[in-house]
């Protein structure tokens, strides 16, 4: 009888205790993760539903960055026009050409950021520019002015495919003209 005592003890005491914990754990409410993810497991597969809302704070930061880029492209345009006013390709010094080239590079970078920040579609422009430096700068100024004064950006919640296409053409023209003018400043 001594040999059966440990087995009998385990059966009489441990099994009901184990059943008590198992039935008690099923009655608890499952805890949801705080990140907004819900996980359902089915055999080897795991399905996830991810919350895709963007935090309003990040939306505000993105809007502020776009506004800053709008101001920056206008200020760069004014600075470029001032530099070009005193620039002569024949007599100008290398530092002025270098400064014009870096300003054009910055304009291109800001224009590209604005394209992505405003979700403007990339439009392939059939226009290939073949102009001298001064007329190219005037065309760049017109493209920047046209882009900035687009009614699509002046009023909130304006949705017009024609204005979006115009904005895409303006951004493409800005980028192409910046590339052309940088080549011209390096070539002299």
Polypeptide structure, described:
The chain has one domain (56-187). The protein is elongated. It has helices at residues 4-26, 56-85, 94-117, 133-148, 151-154, 161-187; strands at 38-42, 45-49. By secondary structure, the chain is mainly α. Helix 2 (56-85) runs antiparallel to helix 4 (133-148). The protein has a two-stranded antiparallel ribbon with strand order 1-2. Mean pLDDT is 78; it is low at 33-45. Helices cover 66% and strands 5% of the residues. A hairpin with a 2-residue loop joins strand 1 and strand 2 (45-49).
Q: How many H/I helices?
A: 6
Order of helices and strands: HEEHHHHH
Q: In angstroms, what is the radius of gyration?
A: 33 Å
Oligomeric form of this entry?
A: single chain
Number of domains as seen in the coordinates: 1
Distance between the termini: 108 Å
- Which regions are unreliable across 5 or more consecutive residues at pLDDT < 50? 33-45
Number of DSSP-assigned strands: 2
Strand order of the largest sheet: 1-2
Mass-distribution shape: elongated
Short description, anyone?
The chain has 188 residues and is mainly alpha-helical.
């Amino acid at each position: 009888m001594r040999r059966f005592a440990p087995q009998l003890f385990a059966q009489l005491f441990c099994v009901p205790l184990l059943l008590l914990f198992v039935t008690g754990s099923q009655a608890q409410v499952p805890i949801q993760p705080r990140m907004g993810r819900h996980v359902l497991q089915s055999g080897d597969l795991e399905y996830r539903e991810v919350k895709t809302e963007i935090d309003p704070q990040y939306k505000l930061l993105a809007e502020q960055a776009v506004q800053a880029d709008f101001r920056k492209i206008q200020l760069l345009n004014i600075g470029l026009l001032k530099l070009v006013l005193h620039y002569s390709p024949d007599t100008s010094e290398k530092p002025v050409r270098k400064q014009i080239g870096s300003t054009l590079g910055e304009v291109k970078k800001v224009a590209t950021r604005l394209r992505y920040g405003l979700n403007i579609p990339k439009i392939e422009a059939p226009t290939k520019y073949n102009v001298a430096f001064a007329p190219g700068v005037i065309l760049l100024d017109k493209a920047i002015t046209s882009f900035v004064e687009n009614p699509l950006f002046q009023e909130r919640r304006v949705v017009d495919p024609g204005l979006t296409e115009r904005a895409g053409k303006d951004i493409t023209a800005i980028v192409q003209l910046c590339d052309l003018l940088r080549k011209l400043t390096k070539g002299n």
